[in-house]
Amino acid sequence: MNNKIKVLIGDDSAETGVSTANKLREKGMYAYTRRKDCGVILESIKKDPPDAAVLDISSQNGDIISLMKTVREMGVKPPVFIVTSAYDNEFIEKQVIENGASKFLLRPCSADDLCAAINSALGDRASSFSDDMEVVVTDMIHQLGVPAHIKGYHYLRTAILYSIEDKTLLDSVTKLLYPTVAGIYDTTSSRVERAIRHAIEIAWDRGNVDTLNSFFGYTVDTGKGKPTNSEFIALITDKLRLRYKSALRTH
C-alpha cells in the first residue's frame, strides 16, 4: 500500500462510490470511500490526507469550494482534487478549477478516465513544483555570486535541487550526493566535489558580504573561512525547505 496512490472517494453508495473504488483498486490504487458529506470528508482528509480526493459537486452539508479552501488552510498535506458533476456547467467548472480543483469530470466517467485524471493531476503538480523550485535555486545561487559559466554552478544547482527532494542525501554527501550529480553529468564524484568547491570559493571571494550574510544568517563566519561544500548545500537546502514547507508537503 505504501507505494500506491491513495484516493479518497467522497461517495460511499454501492452504485457509485464503492463501485468506483473497486475499479481503482483493480488499477493498482489504494481507494476508499467516505460519505458524501463535506464535514465527513474534511475530517477524513485532516486525519489521513490522501494523494487525491474525488468529490462530487453535490456533496451535502457544505460546498466543495469551501472544503478545498479549508483544507489548504489546515496545514496538512492537501490532495489533488478531482471534482465530478452530473451536469455540464461551464460556470461551475470555472469556479471549482479557479478555487483549487485539478480536474472537473462529468459523471458518469469511466475508471480509465478517472485514473488518467488522477495520474495527470499528480504529475502536473510535481512538474510545476520542480520547475518553480529550479527557478528559485537558480536565482539564489546567482545572487550569491556564483558565475553561471562554470561547471560548479550547474553541479551546485543540481545538488541543491536533489537535496531538497531527498534530504537524506545530505547525510552522506561524498557517498550519495556527489555520485548522484556525477551520474547526471557523466563525470566523476571527485570532479563534482572540486567544481562545487571552486564555485563556493568564487562566491565567497567575490560575492557581496551582506548578501551572503542575509542568506546564511551569520551561521558561517566570512572572516574566518569559507563554508564546506556540505555546509553550503545544507544551509541553502534547509532555508528553501523552510521557506517552501507548505509546498513541499503537497509535493
TrEMBL record:
One of its GO terms (cellular component) is cytoplasm. Residues 6-122 form the Response regulatory domain. Ca(2+) binds at residues 11-12, 56. Coiled coil: none annotated. Its cofactor is Ca(2+). Pfam families: Response_reg, Spo0A_C. Binds 1 Ca(2+) ion per subunit. It is found in: Cytoplasm. Keywords: Activator, Calcium, Cytoplasm, DNA-binding, Metal-binding, Phosphoprotein, Repressor, Sporulation, Transcription, Transcription regulation, Two-component regulatory system. PROSITE patterns: RESPONSE_REGULATORY (PS50110). It comes from the Bacteria. Gene3D superfamilies: 3.40.50.2300, Winged helix-like DNA-binding domain superfamily/Winged helix DNA-binding domain. GO terms for biological process: detection of stimulus; phosphorelay signal transduction system; regulation of sporulation resulting in formation of a cellular spore; sporulation resulting in formation of a cellular spore. The modification 4-aspartylphosphate is found at residue 56. GO terms for molecular function: calcium ion binding; DNA binding; DNA-binding transcription factor activity. InterPro entries: CheY-like_superfamily, Sig_transdc_resp-reg_C-effctor, Sig_transdc_resp-reg_receiver, Spo0A_C, Spore_0_A, WH-like_DNA-bd_sf. May play the central regulatory role in sporulation. It may be an element of the effector pathway responsible for the activation of sporulation genes in response to nutritional stress. Spo0A may act in concert with spo0H (a sigma factor) to control the expression of some genes that are critical to the sporulation process. This is Stage 0 sporulation protein A homolog.
